[in-house]
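Input structure tokens:
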């Protein structure tokens, strides 16, 4: 039986390939005019969590922007955002102090914020769907 499914059009940012290989996932996949970006966390170069929450959020956005840039776009191309926060009652205000640094001008993308109990040692994760401008 022949596989008729097209291969995934995977987008890799510069570096960090070992992280994706080790954990067996793609950083982003293009499909039908959209870019589906895996959840990005604020990891240090060795993959461990950045200990400071604000810096962790900044690193997550920096990692996200590297993937968007590798796809030929930017955060302006993002149409849908999902954020995951450990203990949002105590972390939301701190996280949301950083978000405007990266969010850009209105109109803003849609967003869903989810409180979770565990993120592999991280406190914040962001995943997005982007369109247009992706080349």
């Amino acid at each position: 039986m022949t596989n008729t499914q097209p291969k995934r059009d995977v987008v890799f940012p510069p570096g960090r390939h070992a992280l994706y290989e080790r954990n067996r996932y793609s950083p982003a996949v293009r499909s039908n005019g959209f870019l589906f970006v895996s959840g990005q966390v604020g990891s240090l170069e060795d993959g461990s969590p950045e200990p400071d929450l604000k810096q962790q959020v900044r690193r997550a956005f920096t990692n996200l922007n590297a993937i968007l840039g590798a796809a030929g776009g930017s955060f302006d191309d993002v149409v849908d955002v999902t954020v995951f926060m450990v203990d949002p009652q105590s972390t939301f205000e701190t996280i949301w102090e950083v978000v405007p640094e990266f969010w850009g001008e209105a109109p803003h993308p849609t967003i869903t914020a989810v409180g979770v109990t565990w993120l592999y040692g991280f406190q914040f994760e962001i995943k997005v769907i982007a369109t247009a401008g992706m080349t």
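The chain has one domain: 9-131. The chain is about 30% helix and 30% strand.
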